[in-house]
Design brief:
By secondary structure, this protein is of the alpha/beta class. It has 2 domains: 291 residues, no CATH class; 176 residues, no CATH class. The protein is 31% helix and 23% strand. It contains 16 helices and 17 strands. The strands form 3 sheets. Strands 12-13-14-15-11-16-10-17 form an 8-stranded mixed sheet. The chain has a 6-stranded mixed sheet with strand order 2-3-1-4-5-6, sandwiched between helices. A 3-stranded antiparallel sheet has the order 7-9-8. A hairpin with a 3-residue loop joins strand 13 and strand 14. The longest helix is centred in the N-terminal third of the chain and has 20 residues. It is globular and about 70 Å long. The protein starts with 5 loop residues before the first strand and ends with a helix.
Length: 515
Amino acid sequence: MSGHCLRLAFARVNQETNALSPVLTTLADFKATHWLEGPQLLAACGRKPMEVLGMFRNAELSGFVQEMHKLSHAHDLAHAHTGVALVPLVSAWAVPSGPLTRDCLQGIIDAILRQLRATEPVDGLYLSLHGAMGAQDTADPEAEIIRQLRAELGPTLPIVVTYDLHASVSREVVEQVQAIVAYATNPHRDHARTGAMAARMLLGVCRKTLHPTMAWRSLPMLMGGGTTIDFLPPMLAIFQRLRRWERQRKILSGSVLMCHPWNAHPETGWNVLIVTDGDRKLAEKLADEVAELCWQVRHELPPAFHTPEKAIQLAKSARLARKLGVVVLADTSDVVSAGAPGENTALIEALLAHGRELVSYVPLRDPEVVAALWPLAIGSQQHVTLGGKLDLARGKALTLQVTIHDKRESHGVGRIVVLVHEKVHIVVVEGPALAVRPAFFSNAGLNPWRADVIVVKNFFPFRMFFAAMARLTLYVRTSGVTDFDAAHVLEFAGNIHPRDEVTEWRTADRRRRLD
């Protein structure tokens, strides 16, 4: 390889799909959230720029680029190698929602192919994928992406993939790539680390210094592991074991993927992936061991959540918490970051009925209301009907007399109209009501510190971002597409825990892997 400059391409397609959401995802949704191509993408992957505007300064692609610079520089000094040329293709990221339209999926693939065809041949490819994406007319869109890229690049070109921790794994993807590495944290906070691991593997394969050998196990379970948080029992011990193994030279990575339970992939479930440096026997042994550990925690299910009335009662009683900060109510039935529409009005109705004395901030997606009120003056009073438009089967409309408090625009959510009824402030947005950070409310002109109660539509990551102000956090079930039993209506290829009686995992694993 002396004197040869390796050309290594990289791309991202990231969206987590809720198969129960009626809100389809289009190419416009990706372009409104995050879409970068070519040199613009490479420039975003330095240390200072925001790689994904409004979300991450350094995510997988930044981790990949920065690690590749470091590795190639060290190798050049030691071996007089001419180095690595990075080839940025496309980075497309959309907020979780319903399935991609067929045109959307193909449009993203076509954009990546255009970038590939516009450059010189490449020696390797890194793909940052989600792994729980859904699309019309295909059961496995990630496999479709890899299939079309593999047809363009040839059967032997090295491809390394990274996945979200909630991905599903399919036989076709495993057979088409050299290695798969997943996040090791939940809430996710190791995006850049995961991209850096992919860089080390891809460069090692291309320079023939590493020989990734991957073992895979697939378990028929939608739920288990309690809260599934990596730093809390019961998952803590499993993730600690994987991290200890990764410190051994022979073990390149160990991943437990705990699945997105509202994904319609027929073989969805938990997966274990172990990548060793050329040691098949070791990889298979460790994958089997971790799969058994995961199966043992299958009966430890998520905790029960409060009713809206109970949560508001607890918030009212928490006077010191409200004085020193805020009470955060997480609407677990309408989690936008898990693909829900974000138009659930249940907590607004409950706050008006039981928490009128609380200053409350509540996010809501209703593009029709935004369009109707946008031309009107701040301070004017209007009758509005909120919700019940995106999810006709489950949504409940709520009619109120409101005052238009403010109007703004913000990246990713579009136009914002803040409505006030008594002390309830409703942040109505055109786009996704992704209220994960306090900035969602400050971008709407509200000071989060002045609230008694803030409603978020998220399971875990908000806890990191609200840590400075949240003095009490309460999880609330209001009924919607991200209830943990909502996916029981989906059709899977076989029985799956806990919906069905499943006594062992190896039969399903053999069928899924055709072993």
